[in-house]
Design a protein that fits this description.
Radius of gyration: 19 Å
Helix content: 10-25%
Structural class: alpha+beta
Strand content: 25-35%
Shape: globular
Number of strands: 18
Largest sheet: 18 strands, mixed
Number of helices: 7
Distance between the termini: 13 Å
Length: about 300
């Protein structure tokens, strides 16, 4: 039977079993969409990255699958993929070009293994409070609406994207954000209504003094109840903060977003915003490596043996 090498890689952390775990299949050549979906479900990570030769104009091609669907872009699975390739000696430090469903993206691997991913030019569109108020959002997220109104006058709810759109929702205090108990159906309905992957709620009331903010990302619409540490959302939120003039004086050269603590998967994302250039960066560590056995592919029967 055919076998494929598969990894579980913890992204946005230096420690295994922390951060956000991604599946990585380093050689996905010849795999059908159905088999990639089955492999993603078998590995069980929020997203699995499948690597292909890109052909002309790019170094790698990646497709991303959740356990239930394909998504166009995934930051933590990208960081995980390049960190694993670098750790295995398959690539050198330096610049790479990645081909994705949203276009070609610039990747840089530093000598220390930090992977930087340039995302698409950002878009940020505030949401009319009359269309989506604090009461509906609070009910969907399981957060007291007052915690959203406290910051709503200064920071709007907005749809922000650097390749994958998110609904960005500011919250006043970490305690309120930590109390969130989302109604998955309500979050999914809002996500579908605004054509976003999910809701990223954040507060400047962070745990670590060096962190810019603490975030939580809820994405049941793409099969992920809560994503521990989220690269695409972090890039979008970095662009949102720039557009919203969230800081007095000069915009910081680098932002640090902490996430995952309420899932016991702590990690952090480094974010740099310079005009239309948005980069997210982080480390990653391989926690599991093995072989998946695939039976012959038959119509209606694409089962994988672990």
């Amino acid at each position: 039977m055919e076998t494929r090498r598969a990894l579980l890689v913890d992204a946005f952390t230096d420690e295994p079993l922390a951060g956000n775990v991604a599946g990585v299949v380093p050689d996905a050549a010849g795999l059908s969409d159905g088999r990639m979906g089955k492999i993603a479900a078998e590995l069980g990570a929020s997203e699995t990255a499948f690597l292909f030769d890109a052909g002309d104009g790019a170094d790698e091609r990646i497709r991303y699958f959740t356990p239930s669907t394909e998504v166009d872009l995934c930051g933590h699975a990208t960081i995980a993929s390049y960190a694993a390739l670098y750790a295995a000696g398959a690539i050198d430090a330096g610049e790479r070009t990645l081909r994705t469903n949203v276009g070609d993206l610039s990747i840089r691997v530093d000598d220390d293994g930090t992977v930087w991913m340039r995302q698409n030019a950002p878009t940020v569109e505030p949401v009319d409070e009359g269309e989506l108020g604090a009461d509906r959002l609070g009910d969907a997220l399981g957060i007291d609406p007052a915690a959203l109104r406290d910051v709503g006058a200064d920071l709007p709810v907005a749809v922000a994207s650097t390749g994958l759109p998110w609904l960005v929702v500011p919250v006043n205090f970490l305690e309120r954000l930590g109390e969130a108990e989302p109604d998955a159906a309500a979050v999914e309905a809002i996500s579908d209504e605004y054509d976003v992957a999910g809701i990223y709620a954040f507060t400047f009331d962070a745990l670590d003094a060096e962190s810019t903010l603490h975030g939580r990302a809820f994405a049941p619409a793409v099969g992920v109840a809560e994503d521990p540490v989220t690269g695409t959302a972090s890039g979008a939120v970095g662009a949102y903060l720039r557009t919203a003039d969230a800081f007095d004086g000069e915009f910081p050269e680098e932002l640090r977003f902490e996430q995952g603590h309420f899932l016991d998967r702590p990690g952090h994302v480094r974010v740099r915003v310079d005009g239309d250039e948005v980069r997210v960066g982080g480390r990653a560590v391989v926690s599991t490596e093995g072989e998946l056995t695939l039976p012959e592919e038959r119509d209606g029967d694409d089962i994988i043996e672990a």
